[in-house]
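queue> pop job 88
queue> type: inverse folding (structure -> sequence)
queue> payload:
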């Protein structure tokens, strides 16, 4: 990753590399298994290439899809000087290129970063979050999102989440096409091949689902930590998270369901209740995030209760997780 002034996190790099390696190995195993059971290397490779094409499309157009799904539009410095001013200041502090800036015209209070690379990244805030947070709290949220861009974990999450799509595509292709082409009729070998491919696809999907959520929870803690160290204001981010979570809890379920496809990229997931504490959650619990920010505040000499500064400097590594 390109060097910025955001706190480096070796744990995040190791996790991203591991997830990409494991999912890549699983995809190869899936295609090889398909070749074996289909008994047609050309057909298996064709289906695999189509699956990769679908994943490539999701990666390449991820920013456009996300912005369209959130009814967002890019804004220029002339259209929104306040928002651009905050991001300009943070990018200068972090010594990183400025991403595109967008605003989503929805009342749900949230923010996200997306894009296939830092050069194509976009940071988006909703109108709901701008009406909810103070300028200092909004700055803390945007520092969190810029950390995702700097660490390139947005790219890894987009690619990793494609593994489940590929697995599902291969399974359906085998069911509706490959099975008939490879073994016509209801012979025992065809049934075994069909079940084997379905089983392998389900394993790939399940592992992709769990690995992306484990990575997602860690990357959110990393972005909280990096953003807090950059701004030196962990209390502002803690306050923002509490406000956003409280607002989400009061949002109608219909509106939350509409936004849930973006949960892995939001600063706070559009869900409420006990699901935040399960293995399938895309984010750590609010309590865990606040505890980490409290430790950073103590280290920096800036208590979350707004006490006076009594020392501390920018850290080079975060607390153990």
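queue> result:
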């Amino acid at each position: 990753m390109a060097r910025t002034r955001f706190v480096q996190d070796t744990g995040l790099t190791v996790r991203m590399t591991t997830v990409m390696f494991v999912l890549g190995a699983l995809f190869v195993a899936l295609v090889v298994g398909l070749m074996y059971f289909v008994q047609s290397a050309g057909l298996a490779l064709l289906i695999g290439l189509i699956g990769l094409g679908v994943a490539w499309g999701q990666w390449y157009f991820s920013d456009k899809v996300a912005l369209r799904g959130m009814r967002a539009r890019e804004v220029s410095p002339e259209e929104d000087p306040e928002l651009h001013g905050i991001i300009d200041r943070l990018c200068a502090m972090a010594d990183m290129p400025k991403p595109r800036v967008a605003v989503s015209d929805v009342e749900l209070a949230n923010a996200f970063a997306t894009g296939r690379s830092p050069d194509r990244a976009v940071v988006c805030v909703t109108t709901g979050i701008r009406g909810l947070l103070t300028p200092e709290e909004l700055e803390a949220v945007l520092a969190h999102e810029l950390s995702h861009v700097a660490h390139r974990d947005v790219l890894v999450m987009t690619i990793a989440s494609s593994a489940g799509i590929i697995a599902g595509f291969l399974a359906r292709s085998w069911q509706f096409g490959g099975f008939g082409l490879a073994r016509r009729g209801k012979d025992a070998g065809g049934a075994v091949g069909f079940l084997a491919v379905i089983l392998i696809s389900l394993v790939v999907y399940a592992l992709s689902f769990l690995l992306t959520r484990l990575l997602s929870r860690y990357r959110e803690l990393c972005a909280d930590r990096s953003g807090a160290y950059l701004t030196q204001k962990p209390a502002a981010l803690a306050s923002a998270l509490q406000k956003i979570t409280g607002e989400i809890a009061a949002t109608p379920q219909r509106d939350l369901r509409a936004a849930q496809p973006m949960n892995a990229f939001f600063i706070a997931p559009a869900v409420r209740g006990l699901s935040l504490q399960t293995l399938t959650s895309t984010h750590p619990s609010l309590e865990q995030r606040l505890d980490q920010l409290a430790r950073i505040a103590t280290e920096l000499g800036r208590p979350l209760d707004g006490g006076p500064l009594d020392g501390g400097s920018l850290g080079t590594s975060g607390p153990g997780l």
